[in-house]
Amino acid sequence: MTQPTLYPQHTALSLAASGVPVLPLRRGKVPFGNCLACADNTCGGRPNMRVPGPCRCPGICHAWAAATTEPSVIVSPAWASAWRRAVCIGYHPGGAGLTVVDLDDADAIAWAGAALPATRTVPTTRGEHWIYRGAMRSVNGVRPGVDIKSAMSYARYLGPGTGAMADLPDAVRALAVKEPSPVRPATVAVLAGVGGGECRHRTPAYLERGIAMAEQRITEASSAVHATVYRTFLAVLSTHGRCGCLTDTHVSRLFAAAQSKGETTRHCTDAWTNARTTLGL
Questions:
Q1: pTM, entire model
Q2: Read out DSSP for the chain?
Q3: pLDDT in tens, 245-264
Q4: What CA–CA distance (Å, rounded) separates 243 from 221?
Q5: Are 50 and 152 in contact (CB under 8 A)?
Q6: Most buried in the list 23, 160, 175, 264, measured by CB within 10 Å?
Q7: Is there a contact between 211 and 253 (Cβ–Cβ < 8 Å)?
Q8: Are the CB atoms for 65 and 51 separated by under 8 Å?
Q9: From CA 260, how far away is CA 141, in angstroms rounded?
Q10: CA torsion sign, 40 to 264 to 213 to 60?
Q11: 54-92 in b/e burial notation, b at 16+ Cβ within 10 A?
Q12: Cβ 90 vs Cβ 67: under 8 Å
């Protein structure tokens, strides 16, 4: 099944009429960047972040938060240029009460076939989207080759798919609440004792504030996203990388913030590895 690109605006209107919030995606299958009026969120809101604000921008520059079901917005002059340049249609699954289990390869598909109930499936370039009825928290990398796209996230629209849509199973919800484990335990175990004494970073508020600030720095970047992601990873690791505080959950949050700005999993992994190398971790 191929992406419907001949009349993307028409397809978007049809989806919106069925209650699915849509937005155009540019080359690289990512949202359009911030407009000049909204650069650095000077508009007063934070729709690019996980806490949508009161932005009144009529454009499409706020990633998943720009997705809409309003026909007058979809056909507005502000969106017209974007539709002409769009390479595909995106939608906000959570806004439609849906969850997409994004299976990136054959191994992931085989796992889903054994572990998850059958539901509507849509072929993708390398794998499949399994779509369930019900919304939940979005999490990337819950398993090798498996991402969950629902609330505060976007997915590509690749056609209606086949099969009856099932209710969101507990097995999928459980993937988002797995117990955190230390990042690279063997390395952290060696570094945790450097300097001796109790680790001050284990204060929950201190660590949480640091991760939240890092997420904000990435999601508010209006340019030089690659560099911003790397510098932010470097700052986090320089503060928390030697004490064993960071868990997979913290790293996933940072990766998710970077991916909301269009970074791929590979870019995130490379930036994280380079930052560790720079610091000698």
A1: 0.61
A2: -----SSHHHHHHHHHHTT--EEEEBTTTBPPPPPGGGGGGTTS--TTSSS-------SS-SGGGG-B--HHHHTSHHHHHHHHH-SEEEE-TGGGTEEEEEE-SHHHHHHHHHHS---EEEE-SSSEEEEEES--B-EEEEETTEEEE-BT--EE-----BSPPEEPPHHHHHHTTPPP-BSSHHHHHHHTTTT-S--GGG-HHHHHHHHHHHHHHHHT--S-HHHHHHHHHHHHHHHHTTTT--BHHHHHHHHHHHHTTT--HHHHHHHHHHHHHHHT-
A3: 778 788 888 888 888 888 88
A4: 28
A5: yes
A6: 23
A7: yes
A8: no
A9: 14
A10: positive
A11: ebebebbbbbbbbbbbeeebbeeeebeebbeebebbbbb
A12: yes
182-233 residue pLDDT tens: 444 333 332 333 333 345 555 667 778 888 888 888 888 777 778 888 888 8
